[in-house]
Amino acid sequence: MSEFIIETNKLTKKFKNRYAVESVNLQIKKGEIYGFLGPNGAGKTTTIRMLLGLAKPTYGSIQIFGKDMKKEKLTVLKKVGSLVEYPSYYGHLTAYENLEAIRILLDAPKSRIDEVLSIVRLSNDAKRPVKGFSLGMKQRLGIAAALLGKPELLILDEPTNGLDPSGILEIRELIKSMPKEHGITILVSSHLLSEMDQMATQVGIITKGKMIFQDSIETLRQRSKSKIAIKVNETEQAWRMLLSKGIQAEMENKQIYLPHSSDEAISTVVEELIHNRFSVFRVQEEKKSLEDIFLELTSGEGSL
Amino acid sequence: MLKTFASDLIKIKRKMIWFLIFLGPFGVVALEAVNFGLRYDYLTKLYADDLWGGLIGEARYLAIPALMLGLTIIASMIAGIEHQTNSWKQLLALPISKLRVFTGKFALAAVLLFASSTLLFIGIIILGIILKFGTEIPFLSLLKMAYFPYLAAMPFVAFHMWLSITMKNQAIPLVVGIVGTILSMMSFNFPDWFPWKWPSLENGWGDPIYSVFAGLGLGLIIYLMGSIDFGRKDVQ
């Protein structure tokens, strides 16, 4: 068995003439919270549908728990819990009945229903019809359903979509607690990087069907190096002066940018500027946010 | 298969389905009650030799459209439960084969319609006794009246289950079902190979059992084709 819980090889899905997913190689290790990121329509949901056997790949293979998805789909799915896009539920049934309809199919013990209801804190609403639930509660019921079969792998597609901030926080805390408390590996997709930043340990970024980044979240963070911006009067002359002194600097938007450097180096630059009678208005550190990097990577897809 | 069936039974709780299962046979019996109530003298004279046979014959003509319309609505409602909130993706991501899911739904429709047929069987007996047709009840022809059209209509049960599952928009299966109901009502002049004629149990050999065999055979074929198609398609 390979070290990866999920491993795909050149996974491809073609709709007519358009590639929804093209040669995606996912690699997810045990115990990770893998953040699967991409703008809307990048191919996240299509990839997840293929992982769950809901859609057939046009090309490429999927290995989950080291087993080929094509050959051993049902064996694999026994150990997988899922929530795809907006929650699925039977509105006319109570939360308990909803879970019972799924429990029968999973052959799970009856006591498991109360367990999962308490995990998602819906025990008090178990006897109410689900159509009266708020979106957050429906989403939590969906997670409860995903947990029914004691999965080793949880696949959650946009679990916080459309939730209010407190709902998002609740789901996030729930997701973060899973690997610790239950040893579950999680694949969670989102189009919001800030959200992933707060829970994921690994990140995969997909855009236009192609995987463009896959590594730990730290690696992504390191890309967000800071720059020092200096605002002076007569920017151009000041910049030329600095260059003539052999100091690397760039000029942009009437500001001078220095690459990230030590405190001493900055003070030398400022000293030079003042010495040459330039007025220094501002010296500030400009840090690129992860969002900026994300936008850069997905080349300003514009759908955020 | 029992698992998917049990799960589907939970899902139809508090839906109108059970009410419809009751309404179909009740409607047929009630209309016959009105029919015989209003024209009691005329009809008892007409069927003087065989009162029970007369009642059964009259009921059969009403039972066919009720059955055809009923199976259309039941199939649409069973599939609608999953369509409504897009539960297919949740259901089919469970470790259950698609064949079993399809079979479970088909079995549910078949069992519910069987229940309807049984209610019709009981209802007509009660009506006959109330109408004082005597206690020499012809059970065999009653059984034939209640269950043979149901068995002969199996191709439609399988076809509608497949159509309703395949299409999210239930207007199309409903229209197809209504057209089918009308066809089955005026099928007397159609040739024997025409499936819409089978529930009427009329055929050139003069024995209703051939209509039943044809229905069961084609029903099985359509069920198999439907389940293969369902298994092949990507889930929406």
TrEMBL record, chain A:
Keyword tags: ATP-binding, Nucleotide-binding, Transport
Transmembrane segments: none
Ranges where the ABC transporter domain occurs: 6-233
Domain of life: Bacteria
MF terms (GO), sorted A to Z: ATP binding
Xref: CDD domains: ABC_BcrA_bacitracin_resist
Family listed: Belongs to the ABC transporter superfamily.
Protein name: ABC transporter ATP-binding protein
Organism, as annotated: Cytobacillus citreus
From TrEMBL, chain B:
High-level lineage: Bacteria, Bacillati, Bacillota, Bacilli, Bacillales
Record keywords: Membrane, Transmembrane, Transmembrane helix
Protein name: ABC transporter permease
Pfam families: ABC2_membrane_4
Source taxon at top rank: Bacteria
Transmembrane segments: 16-40, 60-81, 106-131, 137-159, 171-188, 208-226
